[in-house]
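Ticket #4471: structure output looks truncated?

Reporter: J.K.
Steps to reproduce: submitted the chain below (103 residues) through the standard prediction queue, then opened the result file.
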Amino acid sequence: MSLFWRIFLLNAAVLITATALLVFLPVTVSTPVLRTEALILIAGLAATLVANAALLRIGLAPLQRLTRAMTTIDLLRPDPRPAATGHSGIADLIETGSSQSGV
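Returned output as attached by the reporter:
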């Protein structure tokens, strides 16, 4: 699965969960917005952002490992080579980065 689709699906999971909570919980917003309603909306937004950040951190962890490995590799010494782990798109990127750098 490509990196685009992985990020899209992670974001979609967060948005679907937030939408489901809005649909199934007895939440209403009046006009003008009451203080308690505003606080609930802000808390929901904060929870959605935290969930999105956590899922993205997990989903992009292989790229973070690759970045760390590439900044510490000595190009004059071919070892150690970063392990090509992760889903197909990320593993391919790691393999390409390793072979292109002359490592």
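Triage note (M.O.): checked the attachment and the full token line is present. Helices lie at 3-24, 35-59, 61-72, 88-100.
Status: closed, working as intended.
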